[in-house]
Amino acid sequence: MPTERVITTVEAIRETLAQALRDRPEVFLLGEGVADPTGIFGTTKGLVDEFGPERVIEMPVAENGLTGIAIGSALMGRRPVMTHQRVDFALLSIEQLFNAAAKSCYVTNGRHRVPFTVRMVIGRGWGQGPQHSQSLEALFAHIPGLKVVMPSTPYEFKGLLHGAIDDDNPVIFIEHRWLHYVSGPVPPERYAIPLTGPRLVEQGGRATVVANSYMVLEAIRASAALAKVGCPVDVIDLRVLRPFDPTLIVESVRRTGRLVVCDTGWQLFGIGSEIIAAVAERAFDALKKPVVRIGLPDHPTPSSLALAESYYPGSGDIVDAIGKLCDLPAAAIAAARAEVIAARRGIPIDKPDPAFKGPF
Amino acid sequence: MVAGLKTSQDTALDPSFATGLFRDMLRIRMVEEEIAKRYREEKMRCPVHLSIGQEAVPVGVSAVLRRSDQVVSTHRCHAHYLAKGGDLRAMLCELMGRAEGCCGGRGGSMHLFDPAVGMLLSLPIVAASIPIGVGAALALKQAKRDDVAVVYLGDASVEEGVFHESANFAAVHRLPVVFVCENNLYSVYTPLEERQPPRPITDLARAHGLYAVAVDGNDVVAVHRAASDAVRRVRSGSGPAFIEAATYRWREHCGPNFDNTLGYRTEVEFETWKRRDPIETLAQHLGEHGLLSESQRAGFAAEIAAEIAGAFAYAEAAPYPAPETAERHLYAD
Q1: Range of A212's domain?
Q2: In terms of CB atoms within 10 Å, which of A187, A188, A348, B44 comes out highest?
């Protein structure tokens, strides 16, 4: 059996973009830094040398204008891929995304298409603070006509990014930057994952944990610790927030009767709330315990490490929530909690965990 | 050939071409007058932004465009759509919310488009279609087509940041785009001088490195001349151009009525512009040169009236979209 190739998410993204540029002449990249020497955290590094400045366009600092320009080109059959180094920067382009990109297909009765991928990076960590670390997927997921994707592992990044670029709709592709450093097995050949819905990561049966993006890794870590104390759980990677398909989640909750949702964004009005609503509508009778939401507290992200410590939930919070929902003995909860804390090996909360390596 | 009706310094305007410009303006005027007349019937159940008084700009510009050139427009898009060759029945069906509307009744009057004739899209958010048009120009350049994009915008659009973002990018990449700014002096009820300092709008375009000219937007021959020059430059790869066309909206910002009683503009100003009616101005020129007789004009009007009556009758009889189709096409298949 051949050894699986293990690469980082950064390498997986770069490989995907290079393949897309090679395969389809209508694909082009644009972004602030897309053609600079560092290439968007390495994800576009060197691509301008291979494909030229006409296809790897270093854009002026004009997010809304360039978003409209990308949309106009997409209406004419091009397939632009734009990157924002922070989700927060993309807020300047909301008018074009919400009004033009999201509605063109609908308003024209299906005659216009906007094959447009917008990468946005969640800049968590190292004191990035209130305007460089926001996780605003709920904002985009609210808009009919957009697709919203939050990949978790390197394998998923490659497949979903190909899926996004192949898709004839505007796709908001949200990358948690702590996932950029994660490594895992990724096949070298091209493969696309269609943007259709969540995936079941683990089937354990005692409870259902639905997580997105980086929180999937925290959920997997919690799940491993819980399994050791006799409480295996289902872990579902939400991965495609829109189009929203809760079927897999509802099926899981019907088996487990217990639900924990984990967001990278704010709890209030967040993605988890929508999942809970979907479960309440479709499987209320199956719920044995009140649902639990894990997400960010109701205030902006503080910069100081002292203030950020309690801001970001992690696998310990997931363990606690499941322990309570499943009536685990206090000793079992403590053991599982100790395991996930030990797994982090004392790395401060403002730095990514280098232990996150696949396979997942 | 006609003296005084020059399209450029060396090419005189062909008489039949000139009467064609007249007929095109008259047709747009008559369509919009009919919309205004029938609006109270409440069959057109959407806002309408009429271009009555501003017909010379789209007619003068469209006369130099190919079918494959791409046009984007604004909330005030009827005249741009019709001048580019947009289907009249599909437009009226759209205004009446019928299934055969260009948007299937999903957009209303502010979203007119007709891809078959290069009318790419209209958007009702001020300045929002500007980058879309520049993006179309980028696509044309990437596809190595020698077509151009035309972006219609109003005087208020240059107050939006996205105009500057778009003009800047168009200049940096020398994109084949002509910005056509219809300066009708008002943003709804607010006059230009309350919104912008006393400097020519063309200065903004020049500051971005665009070739820019100002033109009498009520003189279709002058508009045509400016557009010919701009489109020739742009098509040859010289980079983007900007035309400011001074003109005037006769009726209210939105709706079928006159609104001078509100007091935001003077009766004197209104009458001054009305005397400079682009259609009558051209008719007088043509008449002086013996190129447009009363009977010929009446003939045009009768043909157009019959076309409009037929299109209204068609739209009024056309079926509505089925309610259960409302959720379709949220995503492309």
Answers
A1: 199-344
A2: B44
